[in-house]
Amino acid sequence: MKPILFLLAFTPLTSLLAQQKDSLSSPATVLDKVTVTGKKPFLEQKADKLIVNIEGSATAAGATAFEILQKIPGVLVINEKLMVAGKGVPVIMIDGKVSQYTDIMQVLREMSATGIEKIELITNPGAKYDATGGAIINFILKHNANLGTNGSLNLNAATGIYNRATTHTDRNFYRHGEGITINHREGRFNIYTSYNFLHRNQFDYNEFDRLINSYRFFQSNYSPGYYNSHTYRAGIDFYANRKNTIGIMIRGFSRNGLNEAQNNTRQSDGVTDQPLSNFQTFNYTRAQRTNTAVNGNWKHSFDSLGNELNIDLDYSEYTFKNTSDIVNQLSNGVKYPSRQIIHNPVYLLVFKTDYTRPIGQHSKLEVGIKSGRAIINNDLGFTQNGVPDKSRSTDFKYLENINAAYASLQHTFNKWELRGGLRTEQTIATGNMQGQLILDKNYWQLFPSFLVTRKLSIQLSALVQYSKRVNRPGYLQQNPFIQYLDSLTYSKGNPLLKPEIADEYKFSLAYKNQPFFSISYNKKRDVIFDNAPNQVGNLTYTTPENLASYTNVVAELDFPIELGKKITGYGGNQAIYNHYHANYLGATYDRAKWNWLAYWQVAYKPTPAWSFEFSGYYTTALLNEFILINHMGSVNLAVQKFLWDKKAKVSLNFNDLLFSEKTSGEVIYEEVNVHFHQWNETRNIRLTLNYTFGNQKLKGARTRQTASDEETQRVKVQ
């Protein structure tokens, strides 16, 4: 099982950001046979987004997309759960659209960063974007320029470096990946395809020390496992004429793996620590995930001034199946076997159209509509000693329609830029369990937003933003079935969840188009505590609940690092304030805490062919819902060498050199008293070879936004 579940789903922080920085070479511009090559800064601050240019970064080589996210300013990783400081869980997009992959956290762990050109962090999205989520993280994949055929090959391998005695492991954990990308454009057609394979061995180790009444339960859980994953993308763009472009794209994901967890539980007297009993739980889980998505797109340009219409249609299927064989073994050797099978197919159909019309030279109007339908089937079968247990088996079917319309107006004059928008969304949802209707919702919501930018000087600009956002419950969060995690812990969903509503404000200053200073204020109501703890006898279970109001303040200060022409980089820090107020279990939870986060990245380039990068972060103790997480940090080192006239590059990375991305903390509230420690294979060494071939000036596939949005984002598979 995942560590998030073994932590009573108390979601400890496993790692927490920093950033990366490197200068990238932008596409060459040819003027009368003279090539002018510019450099992109690692960070670019635009009016509504922060752009992180990772292409060419030594630290990114051989990394996964998930590992790169851990190095973006303000992005937190709380045990497989991404958080943007003050914004909650972000929406993940790929090439301007919410990922077709439903188990997005696992997909990001398996997506190679080699194919990513840059990442956009949009903290206050406007009316054009779906209202769900507090922020948007958009991965822009690499695309090339001009006619011809080109491609790239990528090979990478990594291994962990651990003391087996102190980490309680029994083997080395390694991974290797291979990938290829090919693009061909001729005449009116552009064809592109990519494929990536990853084999990964991994582990999680957790310790929990619980006080329940007058007893103490100490649990250790070691979960080694492996998986093989395949990702692919293929598409064709047809440029019918200067005004019309038609595209079809298919992308998919397939993963299978095995996890072997061993849980040891020792019960003792809570005062004297005298041993009373002990038992073991063995959990062998075979997991299969598949995702196939098809997109059709038509773009029509009415003129050359930007008056255009985009229409998208998406269909995707996602299948998740887990088979867990669980054996509880008492100290006398008696075994109690059980089996848990989860089958979760998801079907999504989304239509979207957007229209953009310039108004004069200084204004622009954007309007659009969207409609999406989701069909979710959740089947849980449970057997005890080979006999079906209907009391623990469930069949939950969920149907949802989200309809939306928006309008946005942008106007610039003198040194000002103004943007305002309004979005309305209708949510229709029903849920049936065992043939009985247990969920029935139908409501409309309005989401205003505005942005004001003022140029204070040639190099300095100021920005004020506001947006209203919503965080709808995930599909499985509303599924009331019970999932057993170990002999003392289980979780279940809540069909009565309401959406979170947030009001988000931000003031920022940018210097030379770089982030410099910002302060944000965020207020949420009906906050969903994803893992609200409950104690029933010796059993602990968690369930999502609308429990609290949440107030967050973030003050950020960033600065460049420049020492001569060969040493560049940046540093930054954030002061973060979190305050939760909730009435739960007959008592009031009212807790607030400040934490300080520092991050840095420095690049040294002694020659054009060599580069060295040093990055890291440190955070003081922080508060996340009921969890108080202790301080932690990480330092990383990377070396990169270009070969063969820069057609190839070799990178060597050392991640988490001090093995300090270990999580520890506590949950203490009413009858719940838990202390925990958790770590996994964060320390590793990676070797990567990337080779490009063909015409590197080929015009690649269009970067376009397709119809699917938050529907896929909200399928949270455990």
Automatic annotation (TrEMBL):
<keyword id="KW-0998">Cell outer membrane</keyword>
<keyword id="KW-0675">Receptor</keyword>
<dbReference type="InterPro" id="IPR041700">
    <property type="entry name" value="OMP_b-brl_3"/>
</dbReference>
<feature type="domain" description="Outer membrane protein beta-barrel">
    <location>
        <begin position="300"/>
        <end position="691"/>
    </location>
</feature>
<dbReference type="InterPro" id="IPR036942">
    <property type="entry name" value="Beta-barrel_TonB_sf"/>
</dbReference>
<protein>
    <submittedName>
        <fullName>TonB-dependent receptor plug</fullName>
    </submittedName>
</protein>
<dbReference type="Pfam" id="PF14905">
    <property type="entry name" value="OMP_b-brl_3"/>
</dbReference>
<keyword id="KW-0472">Membrane</keyword>
<dbReference type="GO" id="GO:0009279">
    <property type="term" value="C:cell outer membrane"/>
</dbReference>
